[in-house]
Amino acid sequence: MSRAPLVFICTCHGTLSGALDRKTLEKGIAERFPDARVEFVPSLCRSGDLDRVSAPAGLEGPSGVLVAACSPFSRGKAVLDLAGKRFPGVGPELVDLREGCAWVHSTDPEAASAKAVDLVSMGLAAMKVRKRSPRPRIEVEQSVLVVGAGPAGLAATGALARLGARVTLVDRLARPGGLLNQIGKLFPHNTSSEELLGPLLQEIAHPAVDFLPKTQITRIQGDPGRFEAHFIRDGQDVSLSAGALILACGALPVLPENRYRSGELSGVISQLELETRLKKLEAASAPPDFGKAVFIQCLAAREDDHPYCSTICCPTALKNAIRLKSLAADVEVTILHRGIMTPGKVLEELYRKAMAAGVRFAAYSPEAPPEVRGNGRLSSVAVHDALSGRSMEIPADLLVLSTPLKPRPDTSALAAGLNVRLDNIGFACGCEPMRPLAAPVQGVFLCGAVRWPVYAEHAVDQGRAAAVKAAGFLEAGRAGGADLTSLALPGSWPGAASVDPQSCSRCGQCIALCPYGACRRGDDGTARVSGARCRGCGLCASVCPSGAVRVPENNVALRAMLREIAPRMDR
Amino acid sequence: MEAPEKSNTLPVLVVGAGVAGLTAALDLARLGIPSHLIERDGFLGGQVMRLDKLYPSDHCAFCPVWTEGAACSSHPLVTVHPLTSLEELESADGRIAAVLAERTPAVDPDSCVFCGLCRQTCESKGVAGAITLRPPALTWDPSAPPVPVLDPGLCSRCGACETVCPTKAISPSRLDSPAKNVRLEVADVIFATGFTERNPSPVAEYGQPDHPDIFTALDFETWTGEAGPNSGAVKRRSNGATPRSIAFIQCAGARDRRFLPYCSSVCCMHGLKQARWIKRRLPEASVALFYTDLRAVGKGYEGYARAAAEEGVLLVRGRPGIVFSLPQEGSTPVLALRYEDTATAKTLTAEFDMVVLNGGLAACPLPGESRLEPDRAQTCGFCREPADVAQAVVQGARSAALVAARLSAGGKL
Amino acid sequence: MTQPALNPQAPEGRKEVRAALFACRWCALLGAGRAGLDRIHLPASFRVIPVECAASVEPDLVLRALADGIDGVAVLGCHLGGCRHNEANRPARLRLTLLQDLLEIVGLDRRRLLLSWGTAHEGHQFGGLVREFMTELEAMPPVDTKLLRPF
Do A542 and C57 touch (CB under 8 A)? Predict the structure, then answer.
């Protein structure tokens, strides 16, 4: 009884016989792999055809099964699935002889057949040496840590609790709500921040939720399934572990500093200060104590030093202009802008509403910014309206400066330990575009303004979206974690890297470069690979100067394949 | 984490397999909730599959979407129904029934091996163009290679293709078979029906929809795409020549009370993307983009718009008042735009070889949505609010979260 | 490597060249499959080797391939910034570009190592790259293995 590799060559219902010569293939493969059994089958993607092939006599079981058919992007996937069913436990491998050979060389059958022999031989050679390391079983602790109790973090926490997960929510402040606590009314529906926050706070008043206020995160380390977070709480160092993480740590409002003479003239305030004032005025139903307000948009935004549009400032300005108008219709409000950024249906409607309410608009160009006039006290703003081409001086007793949100400085420290990339502004990046809320390291999710400035309603949406992703991660962990080892497609696992500590030179190249932070230094200085973080890209193996790091599925097999086609390489 | 109640969970109906619907179905599946994902077209991915490139990364659009599509079709808890539309939703006593119309394709995608014999035979019978391997609307999906498509108008129903097909995948008689109605009981419904691009020709100033060198933005994407008829080359549709100048008109039909009053949100970036790609492919051509407000609002978008200007795309603030064709010089038709450049307050006329109208994206209807209790129906993606890919997938996941929370706890968020 | 075989002299008009194409399975492999579906006719002298990521191609492997009689090696990966493995193709590009420099330093044509990022995902793009690469390799003499002996 022997074990030999089985090769099934699909003739695609005879349609490949014009380009691939059966005799050449049989002879060529037999020369290089005398023990391989070669069978020609009319159709490997049709269920049943493989079943009709009787196992060769005297064969205990194949040492491997190679299916030579078509590209994995046409019917190769079906071919693999069927072969897997026919020969369970063998792990069949696919070689593309149709799209990759017969169809691109149909005018040269001789060369195509010779190439097909090479391709099958490469497959057999790889199969012979390829080591199948077992898929790591990823233990996933059934809990989530949510960092930041703004609208995004609150929504994520509430949704996770509802989905059955245990959640710890931390915030550096005593009061949950984040920036929302400084805001009275929210666009686009003019709801009060309490109306939005109230239900969210109710959701987190859930037995599965542990809210830790006044807790400052210092660092997060560990692996998917078991992250360790360290905090300072009441002056004490505290740590906890969680299976998944949601970063919802928000962003910071930029202060106008001394631009447009703020800090020098009275009557020049930031949009956030106007929020506070409006909240008070609305509570008291009092008319504003000013009659002429001018807003300037895009301060510290869309400039060379701050090359981004912060998304929320135009709608915020429109909302507050409308609020002023509804407190007292005779208040004059002029918004000086560089294009009103209200994309979509709802925000465009807000823009129309502001126009209907009598808010005036003038566009300035960044080359000729508005000039603030006054002596001790604001008197007027001069501007050249780029739309009408007229210069004008607008009398004003209140100047409101719209500034963007900027990344929190502590985001970068958190991101670094988790291999979360930051964009050129400093906001965190997910896997754009299809998984914008998922970081490359599994089990790490982002939502809210830590990723990009976002308005409260969308932050809530993102929080819930991140929650469903995190819950899915926990669920995959409960099911054994196998789904978590492949990058995207089930069943396609490239293998995980491993280190031979004997030959590791401790150079640290792999540790510096691993895109998932999976390579780290062990106690003895040699590199170690975390099976839960590794996704099998093989970068570590290709930078290792001493050949100590290997992806068993990959490196050895690549060499074996090359040997089949390099004329002078050792077989 | 406690197991969600899976055993007696009815499947969720997800209407539309664009990026939002794909995400919603996959996120539900990952929580153990089954779904039926229905799609009007024969492929997954929706309108994004028609795009050549995505902003702001400038990468090809299909590969990230294709992965999600493949994950969806291979997930045991997602039942994909291609070529299926939602006919009716009935809601009574807390139960929802959906009536689906499933069309049978003339070529069975599961058994076709793409050998091309049918087309050869068809052509040898002298019926030109009845079978194409790549649909002209460029709705290709690399996860499902180009199944032959039969043109019902050109096919003579002679059946020769059926005789030669090695797998009996093709059957012209199916062209005439009616759609099959299927009735399903579902727990909740997620609408992700997306958008359609409307030609803004009802707006009088753009009223030359049949001019070969006037494109809507998505047509233009197809025409110039790597997977398009010209393999990424930029040519005029009128005479095949390389254009010397191209104008992109933003808000064409949008933010316009006569047509679509709202801002379609994605078109500024989409126009910038196309303008940059044209400039890269034809550095000599003059490329102008006429905008109302350049709404580059989103992660990395402002930098993208700045780069467009630096690369020589002329950004003109102003909405062209009229597009008209000039008397032809020989065989070369020329288009002209009349517009006011608001930066200089002057009315100008400029000639262009090609004009791209960008903006008329209309949300698709949500059939039967009004018949459901509000917490049993979620909407996500463009049909809810104009959204780009990143926003649409967030909304898809959010819908999945809301449905999952309702199903697992019997309450709502 | 052990073979002491002398460099076989190229017959008139250059013998058939051999090229190994490492194709990232997320991008260039799609293009390769697509070229087949579109029945684009290509010279038969290249062999595609699918890899999980362009980052997994070891410089050492490229050198050995060239030393052992392969005329050219191509590494075809995703767009820079579009890598499925969190930008792993950026360090890969850096290293492989250095390797091209190294080839030049030892006296080999740097074009024997073709690097292409995100430009092979369509059948016609893949076909174009392959044809051009093969034409370039055909115009070159066989690799002088003496130059690569230290490796």
Answer: yes
Quote the minimal CA–CA distance from B175 to chain A in Å: 24
Q: Residue B7's pLDDT is what?
A: 47
Give the angle subtended at the CA of A276 by the CAs of A272 and A278, to the nearest 5°.
110
Same domain, A374 and A449: no
Q: Do A513 and C1 touch (CB under 8 A)?
A: no
Cβ-defined contact of C58 to A419 (cutoff 8 Å): no
Q: What is the mean pLDDT of residues A20-44?
A: 94
Q: B162 lies in which domain range?
A: 117-174
On whether any CB of chain A is under 8 Å from the CB of B297, the answer is yes
Residue B2 lies in a domain: no
Q: Which of B58, B63, B227 sits opposite C26 (nearest CB)?
A: B63
Asked if C112 reaches chain B (Cβ–Cβ under 8 Å), the answer is no
Residue that finishes a domain, picked among A388, A403, A418: A403
The confidence score (pLDDT) of residue B177 equals 86
Residue B7 belongs to a domain: no
In a domain, B25, yes or no: yes
The torsion angles phi and psi of A370, rounded to 5 degrees, stand at: -60, 150
Q: How many domains does chain C have?
A: 1
Q: In this predicted structure, what is the pLDDT of residue C1?
A: 36
Read off the pLDDT band of A490 (50, 70, 90).
very low
Residues B233 and B262 in one domain: yes
Rounded Cα gap, residues C79 and B59, in angstroms: 7
Give the pLDDT confidence score for residue A72 in this predicted structure. 83
The closest CB to that of C121, out of B60, B67, B146, belongs to: B60
Q: What is the CATH number of the domain that holds A337?
A: 3.50.50.60
Highest mean pLDDT among A482-486, B152-156, B324-328, B387-391 belongs to: B387-391
Query: How do strand B149-150 and strand B131-132 relate by DSSP bridges?
Result: antiparallel
pTM of this prediction? Answer: 0.93
Q: Do A15 and B115 touch (CB under 8 A)?
A: yes
Asked if B386 has any chain A CB less than 8 Å from its own CB, the reply is yes
Compute the average pLDDT of residues B56-74. Answer: 85
- Whether residue A510 sits in one domain with residue A414: no
Chain A 172-231, CB below 8 Å of chain C: which residues?
A: none
Neighbours of chain B (3+ CB pairs under 8 A): A, C
* Residue A371: per-residue pLDDT: 97
| Domain co-membership, B156 together with B220 | no
In a domain? residue B28: yes
Q: Which chain B residues have a beta carbon less than 8 Å from that of A468?
A: 27, 31, 397-398, 400-401, 404
Residue B2 pLDDT > 60: no
Q: If you measure CA to CA, which chain B residue comes closest to A16?
A: B115
Distance of CA A161 to the CA centre of its chain: 23
What CATH code is carried by the domain that includes residue B30? 3.50.50.60
Q: Which of B113, B143, B265 sits opposite A13 (nearest CB)?
A: B113
- Distant-in-sequence, close-in-space partners of A473: CB < 8 Å, separation ≥ 6: A140, A224, A243, A244, A442, A443, A484, B30
For residues A439-453, average pLDDT: 96
Residues B339 and B379 in one domain: no
Cα-flanking dihedrals φ and ψ of residue B160, to 5°? -65, -35
User: Taking residues C113-125, what's their average pLDDT?
Assistant: 92
Whole-number average pLDDT of chain A:
92
Q: What is the mean pLDDT of chain B?
A: 88
Are A276 and A180 in a shared domain?
Answer: no
Two structure tokens written together for A163: 């989905």
Whether the per-residue pLDDT at A480 is higher than 60: the answer is yes
Which domain does A530 fall in, by range?
498-552
Q: Which domain holds residue C134?
A: 19-148
Partner-chain residue, chosen from C27, C39, C122, that has the shortest CB–CB distance to B226: C122
- Distance (Å, rounded) from C-alpha B195 to C-alpha B392? 12
- The structural domain count of chain B equals 3
Helix axes A151-162, A193-204, angle to 10 degrees: 40
Point out the residue among C27, C30, C124 whose CB comes nearest to the CB of B231: C124
**What is the mean predicted confidence (pLDDT) over B109-130?**
84
Q: Taking residues B30-56, what's their average pLDDT?
A: 91
Residue A425 belongs to a domain = yes
The whole-number average pLDDT for the span B30-46 is 92
Domain membership flag for residue C48: yes
Number of separate domains in chain A: 4
- Measured between CA atoms, the residue of chain A closest to residue B317 is A387
| Chain A environment of C23 (Cβ under 8 Å) | none
CA dihedral A7, A12, A17, A23 (to 10 degrees): 10
Q: Is A427 helix (H, G, I), strand (E, B) or coil?
A: coil
